[in-house]
Every structure is written in structure tokens, then in C-alpha cells.
Write a structure and sequence with these properties.
Blueprint lengths: L3 E2 L12 E2 L3 H4 L15 H4 L6 H12 L4 E4 L6 H12 L3 E5 L6 H4 L1 E5 L5 E5 L1 H8 L1 E6 L13 H5 L3 E5 L2 E5 L5 E7 L13 H6 L1 E4 L5 H11 L5 H20 L10 H12 L5 H16 L1 H14 L3 H4 L1
Parallel strand pairs: 3-10, 3-11, 4-7, 7-10
Antiparallel strand pairs: 1-2, 5-6, 8-9
Bound molecules: adenosine-5'-triphosphate (ATP) and magnesium ion (MG).
């Protein structure tokens, strides 16, 4: 067996995670040699870092045919994981957002008028992915109205999918390369989020998704923002870590999670746009927080002061 670095994409120089297995073992021999048209490119996957210490079981479960339900706060990397997986397996990614307007026919087959004026059924992403293989990302699934999620029952049972069109009823068998990943946010306080149906969790291998570990996040950010001192990045990540823990422990009165998107925005504004750290933190963290959850802002600002050496806090 050879040793490989887990992140097949360029890993930040400050860390590496090693596995005692070959590339083929890692992907259970499922990797295709040729990408499809819908396969996310390396550029689309961007800087995603696969943190084996956190996501290994989910990866193995998906590769061995389990359907996944990833539940995690905004920005912790659920969508990014699915995209990365499709890229690594050279499979199509069917990225299907769900909301309160989503209907069964949007997922299965919908009549559409062609340029010739004739109405025909257009197959939705679900039968296409189910029959041809691909990573099917049922994004934000708990946002659908009651009943719509039932469309996935045959999928999670591994049964044939029945799709009714004007041409008749199509029965579609599950392709061996079909990978189902549903995502959702854990707290019903999020706008548009419904209570997560327990039966969906029962039907899937359910993972409480989490941000990558602190070292991984620091490594990633310091590679992306080389002009910013490592100390500042470490401080910011330590701050984010504390805020996320506190939100996870007490979601009723602490709903802000400092996502990686927010940290990247702060660092981008500081490194590339030339704003001071003070301004960048205000735009990236404090203003959205004050407008959405004003009562939390004070706590978060105090935590920031404890963790981050900002210009204004030094003044
Ligand atoms: N492991 C990771 N490596 C690199 N970047 C990451 C990772 N996880 C998350 N990110 C970054 O965080 C951003 C948000 O991730 P993503 O969109 O996957 O979150 P999410 O959990 O799907 O959030 P939401 O619930 O809001 O949809 C990504 O654009 C990516 O830049
Ligand atoms: Mg997402």
C-alpha cells in the first residue's frame, strides 16, 4: 500500500493528512476515468480541503451506497463536500435546491413548451441522476412543504422510481453510481426552514456536519491570504471556533455562527481591498450580526476582543 495525501487538491503547506491506503482504496474503486459534462471542474471545487478527521465516515458511507443526510449550520461545507465528491469521482453533480415552492413535478418531470409550440415532459434531475448515476444533492431539503420530501422514499428504499409523463410511466432503476446527499440546517430558527422530518433522518446515514478542524481552516486561509499575518488568521479562527461552539450549545439565544464565508470576506477585504481589519470585521461580521441578531452582537464583540488583535481594540 502506498501512502497518499488525503486532499487530492492542493493542500495548504502548513498541514497534511496522511492515509495508509491507495487512491483506489480511498474511493473504493468507484472513480471514473472520464469526467462528465456536469462534473464540477477543479476550478469550481476551488480550494476545498477534505478533512479526513471529520468527514471520513460520511465519505465511506456514501461510497458504499448509503444515502446521506448532512445537517449543519450555514457555511460549514455541506454543499462544498458534495461538489468535491462529484469532482473526485468524475461524476455528474445534480445540484437541486429545495424551497417552499418546490413541487414533486419539479423533481420528477414537468411539462414544458418547446420552440415548436408543442408541450412535452422534461425529465427532472432526480430520474436523470437515478438512472444514469451521479451525485444528487438535495440541497436544503427541510425547506420543502409537507409531502414533497416523500418523493425521495423510493430513492432511499432503493426501489424503482416511477415517473409519469404523457408518454406513459417510466420505471427507473437505481444506477450503481447514484449517490444521494440531502442537506439541511439544524435550527428551525433559520428563515424558511421547517422541522426536519424524522423519517428522512431514519432513511439516511445522518451526519451532524461541522466546519473543518481549526488547523485545516488556518492552513486553508493562510494559503489563500498570504499577506495577512498567521497570528491574525489563527486569532480569527479561534474566535470563530468559540462562537460556533457557543451557538451549538445554546442555539435558543445564540444563533450566529461565524462561517468560513464570513472569515474569507474579512480577510479578502483586508488583503485585497485595503480596508483596515476594523472595517473588514465590521462589514464581514458585526454589521450583518447587529442587523439580524442585535442582542447577540455585544457577546460576539466581546469574544472578538478576547481573540483577535484588531487595530481598534489595540488603540
Ligand atoms: N472543507 C472546506 N474547505 C475549503 N473551503 C470550505 C470548506 N468547507 C467550507 N468551505 C468554504 O465555505 C463556503 C461555504 O461552504 P458551503 O456552501 O458548502 O456551506 P453549506 O454548509 O452548504 O452552507 P449553507 O447551509 O449556507 O448552504 C464555501 O464556499 C467554501 O469556500
Ligand atoms: Mg449549502
Amino acid at each position: 500500500m502506498t501512502t497518499m495525501v488525503a486532499a487530492p487538491l492542493a493542500a495548504p503547506s502548513t498541514f497534511s493528512i496522511e492515509f495508509e491506503r491507495t487512491d483506489e482504496d480511498f474511493f473504493c474503486g468507484r472513480r471514473r476515468s472520464t469526467p462528465t459534462e456536469l462534473t464540477p471542474t477543479a476550478a469550481e471545487v476551488g480550494d476545498y480541503v477534505y478533512d479526513a478527521t471529520k468527514y471520513d465516515l460520511a465519505l465511506k458511507a456514501a461510497l458504499t451506497g448509503e444515502d446521506l443526510f448532512l445537517i449543519g449550520v450555514t457555511g460549514c461545507g455541506k454543499t462544498a463536500f458534495a461538489k468535491w465528491l462529484a469532482h473526485e469521482l468524475r461524476l455528474s453533480l445534480y445540484f437541486v435546491p429545495h424551497d417552499a415552492q418546490t413541487e414533486n413535478e419539479d423533481l420528477l418531470a414537468k411539462p414544458e413548451q418547446g420552440n415548436d409550440g408543442i408541450w412535452r415532459h422534461k425529465l427532472g434531475s432526480l430520474p436523470l441522476a437515478y438512472g444514469q448515476g451521479g451525485v444528487y444533492l438535495a440541497d436544503e431539503l427541510p425547506s420543502v412543504k409537507p409531502g414533497v420530501a416523500k418523493v425521495y422514499n423510493p430513492v432511499t428504499n432503493g426501489d424503482r422510481l416511477l415517473v409519469r409523463t404523457a408518454a406513459g410511466i417510466h420505471t427507473i432503476k437505481r444506477h450503481p453510481d447514484f449517490i444521494f446527499i440531502a442537506t439541511g440546517n439544524p435550527w428551525t430558527t433559520y428563515a424558511g426552514n421547517n422541522v426536519i422530518a424524522f423519517d428522512l433522518m431514519d432513511r439516511c446515514a445522518t451526519f451532524e456536519w461541522d466546519f473543518p478542524s481549526r488547523e485545516v481552516e488556518v492552513g486553508l486561509l493562510s494559503t489563500q491570504f498570504p499577506d495577512i499575518g498567521l497570528g491574525i488568521i489563527e486569532d480569527l479562527v479561534a474566535f470563530a471556533d468559540q462562537i460556533r461552539r457557543s451557538a451549538a450549545q445554546n442555539p435558543d439565544n445564540h444563533r450566529y455562527v461565524c462561517s468560513m464565508r464570513a472569515l474569507k470576506r474579512v480577510l479578502h477585504l483586508h488583503q485585497n481591498v485595503g480596508s483596515t481589519l476594523d472595517e473588514a470585521v465590521t462589514v464581514g461580521i458585526l454589521t450583518p450580526l447587529r442587523l439580524q441578531f442585535p442582542e447577540e452582537c455585544e457577546t460576539v464583540e466581546a469574544t472578538l476582543k478576547a481573540h483577535v488583535v484588531l487595530d481598534r481594540f489595540n488603540a
